[in-house]
Design goal:
This protein is of the alpha+beta class and 112 residues long. It is built from 2 helices and 5 strands, in the order αβββββα. 38% of the residues lie in helices and 16% in strands.
Length: 112
């Protein structure tokens, strides 16, 4: 079992080379790359850079955003976009908690 792995590359070709190395490693160690969880992101790249591609039996799709250890990465490379994404994520949890509190007014503790 291998957890989340990030691969950094400066070009699509370099990304393919690194993915080929990863695929070889996985084959040698009896592991598989999960195609559903394998995506790539290009910071500030062109539309061509963001085209999906295949390597081996795995089809790799482009993604606009990625969250790693709570940090939000956005493909446009703008800090403001990352902050906005993180705030939206946090707002969802605040709304869930508010609904929980409203529907469970008999909680055994007081909220301020």
């Amino acid at each position: 079992f291998m957890g989340d792995t990030l691969i950094f590359a400066e070009t699509r070709d370099q990304c393919r080379q690194k993915l080929n190395i990863l695929e070889t490693f996985c084959i040698l160690h009896g592991m598989q790359i999960n195609e559903l969880k394998t995506k790539f992101m290009v910071l500030n790249g062109s539309a061509t850079d963001k085209l999906h591609f295949a390597f081996g039996d795995v089809y790799v799709k482009n993604t606009d955003s990625y969250v790693y250890l709570g940090a939000h990465f956005i493909q446009d490379g703008e800090l403001l976009s990352s902050i906005k994404s993180h705030v939206e994520y946090c707002e969802k949890h605040v709304r869930k908690f508010s609904i929980f509190c409203a529907t469970n007014d008999n909680m055994p503790f007081v909220l301020k």
